[in-house]
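Reviewers of the previous submission asked for a worked example of the structure-prediction workflow described in the proposal, so we include one complete record here. The input consisted solely of the amino acid sequence. No template or homolog information was supplied to the procedure at any stage.
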Amino acid sequence: MDAFEITGGRPLRGEVTIQGAKNAALPLMAAALLAGGDTPVTLRNVPDLSDIRSMLKLLAELGLELTRDTGGTLSSAPSASDKVLAPYDIVKTMRAGICVLGPLLAKRGRAEVSMPGGCAIGTRPVDLHLRGLEALGARITLDAGYIVAEAPPARGGGRRLRGAHVFLGGPNGSTVLGTANVMSAAVLAAGTTVIECAACEPEIEDLGKMLVGMGAEIEGLGSPRVTVHGVDELAGVDHAVMPDRIEAGTYLAAAAATGGDVAIHRFPVRAMGAFLAALRDVGVRLEEVDGGSADRELNDAETATVRGVIPRRLDPTAVVTQPHPGFPTDLQAQLMALLCLADGNSLVTEKIFPDRFLHVPELQRMGADVTRLGPSAMVRGVRELIGAPVMASDLRASAGLVIAGLAARGTTLVQRVYHLDRGYEAMETRLQALGADIQRVRR
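From that input alone, the workflow returned the following structure tokens.
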């Protein structure tokens, strides 16, 4: 099993380019199932990750072949396949496997999708997905761990979903992948669908932009009320995947934790307001590398090349994870690693996945002073972290432990980095280019 061996204490210096967002690319790839006609679906800036490879395998199982070039471009011809089974062996490896449910149901009239897998960060039910699709007329049953969904009969023959008013709010807010599924299903439904409490995440907006490029009629993208006017058919599209805001935040936090100076290209400024606000509280100021704009002027930029101006002393802060535009849960572990070195007491409250604190005992092994308080963690800053063997429990916890290892004195062994490979392409190579002493080893 692979691990990262990190000798910390080296400030990161240099430049890094943010790749396409995993959390955007996976639903975009699933939406390729919706295409008809003769125009291919082309996706650019697709990262080379284990989750992406799993989705490619799943789509091939469903009769959709996507070819990939060395530059991160995927392309596929429209498929006439009638396959509807998304098998357990593939879907169990990634949460986003559920994203094929809506497109399959809308395009082929039926879907048989295994219940999804992914990281162990607490319960993530799919009941909102199913409730939304049922509102569109789907008949849904559960059979031996599979979701079996069937669209209602259409007047002219075949099966077709029907537009409806759909509410997607849940106990922890809106559902991101549920919104992706319902929106992807609604684009081919008969009539108009209104999605209330839709996820506002930039990745959902990116999916909507691709669907519009395919011929869908969608209003309200980026807002909690999305209106979809169903069309009879969608065509192919050429679409560039948005930059990964979680990868961007991870590298910025790593630069801050090590006292480094890293220029970050394709930094998605507009999508990262809450994270940047937290960093300003900590004392990290963002500036544009070319042009000298102040950080407040960068808030309206789609992307920019930026660097973090790192203070000698980090201040504490309090954050609460929330649906977008709130602080992203996927950057909670990375910020916590940084706050372990702040001068004072910080409070981190997790409201999306309350069990997402499995990295806390691992940080404690490195000398961090962190105390769990129900859905919150009190972080008392220490003078330094000490390298130690630690175990990664999920994708983003892995990134937090890597950041801690980069900043720590001595050597840190981060085990189970297969979690990291799901969301960060060649992270050790990219960190080496920034001056980090990090190696991938077999343990």
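The chain has two domains: 2-19+243-442, 22-240. We consider this example representative of the routine output the project will generate in years two and three.
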